[in-house]
Design a protein that fits this description.
Elements lengths: L11 H15 L5 H13 L1 H17 L4 H6 L7 H15 L10 H4 L6 E2 L6 E4 L5 E4 L4 E6 L4 E13 L11 E5 L2 E5 L3 E6 L4 E7 L1 E6 L8 E4 L2 E5 L8 E2 L11 E8 H8 L6 E4 L7 E7 L3 H11 L2 E6 L4 E6 L1
Parallel strand pairs: 5-6, 15-18
Antiparallel strand pairs: 1-4, 2-3, 3-5, 4-5, 5-8, 6-7, 7-10, 8-9, 9-12, 10-11, 12-13, 14-16, 17-18
Length: about 325
């Protein structure tokens, strides 16, 4: 479930003005005078600046303006269709999850990474040493093999690693790094998921040695097969039993075993563009089953057929609401 955090309420007028600028930009390049007007508007008040930040996040999440709204932009300047489009877009901006406000847009750009995946895409790589890396949705990595090490830097997202013995006579270590620390594979298969506050590690085979990025005084932690942990750059979390379905995404499936619907929806949104809103009354509904991540609409339909859930879609499927049936 996309949750909201506390932040100042945004003025509806500022949101509608941001929606208007977003629609105008969808029509084509702004003229020099229009761009100056937009820059002045954006910087004129904190409310407008925050409203435009919401508009940018929306556009990035959807990969562009929804077609049903973009078409209405052709009916300028004051047709009923355009006014309706502005109202819909302002409403979406108003209820965007506030947690996105902390998302640094520049850091989320993956274009300079060696390898990357788009939202909803998985990709398998075979590296020069024979090791295999599977990238999950919205993931970016860099690969740095040299005379001393085999290093994978996970910029963002999630990977499944299957290491191979080093073919060089130097027996170079196989390492995976994130902003929080460095993991050394000890002949192993494991998953790593990089989240903003912590890195999550689950070991399926072998073992992994973990060192923290900003706390070298703490001894490295050995995580064995069947175990999982998470860590920040300063502290380790507790060792616990790894979820047996932790790598199911590499087979195109999202597995649930008496899983809270709120947690399931939060996972599902990683694999689709657009928004899924969950009625709080359904948050603690427990669900089980195997669901395809390549067809999120089919997954939502499967939920509706099995559980007392009503699925309603808007804006050509960009906006989905789950409510009690």
């Amino acid at each position: 479930m996309l949750s909201r955090r506390h932040e100042p309420h945004l003025d509806h007028q500022a949101l509608e003005e941001a929606a208007d600028w977003l629609i105008r930009m969808s029509e084509g390049e702004l003229s020099d005078s229009e761009r100056g007007e937009w820059e002045y508007w954006k910087a004129s008040t904190p409310e407008r600046s925050r409203a435009w930040a919401r508009a940018q996040l929306l556009q990035t999440k959807l990969g562009g303006l929804p077609p049903s709204l973009a078409m209405s932009a052709l009916d300028r300047p004051s047709s009923p269709e355009r006014r309706a489009a502005l109202g819909k877009l302002a409403m979406i901006l108003a209820i965007l999850p506030a947690g996105w406000g902390s998302w640094k847009l520049a850091e989320s750009q993956q274009w300079s990474a060696d390898y990357r995946t788009a939202i909803g895409q998985q990709r398998e790589l075979t590296l020069a040493d024979g090791s295999k890396i599977t990238l999950n949705t919205d993931t970016a990595i860099d690969v740095r093999f040299d005379a001393n090490q085999r290093l994978i830097h996970l910029r963002e997202g999630e990977i499944l690693v299957q290491t191979a013995p080093d073919i060089s006579p130097l027996a170079r270590p196989f390492l995976v790094s994130t902003r929080h620390g460095r993991m050394q594979a000890l002949g192993t298969r494991f998953t790593v998921r990089e989240l903003q506050p912590r890195t999550h590690l689950a070991v399926l085979e072998g073992a992994v040695k973990v060192e923290l990025a900003d706390n070298r005084q703490t001894s490295p932690l050995i995580v064995n097969a069947g175990q999982r942990t998470d860590f920040s750059s300063h502290t380790f979390g507790q060792l616990s039993v790894a979820d047996r379905y932790v790598g199911a995404w590499s087979q195109g499936m999202l597995m649930a075993d008496k899983m809270r619907l709120a947690d399931f929806v939060e996972e599902l949104t990683r694999y689709r563009r657009g928004f899924v809103r969950l009625d709080p009354a359904l948050a603690d509904l427990r669900i089980s089953g195997a669901y395809p991540i390549s067809d999120s609409q089919r997954t939502l339909n499967m939920l509706a057929q099995t559980y007392p859930i009503l699925v309603s879609g808007h804006l050509n499927g960009y906006w989905v609401m789950l409510s009690p049936a």
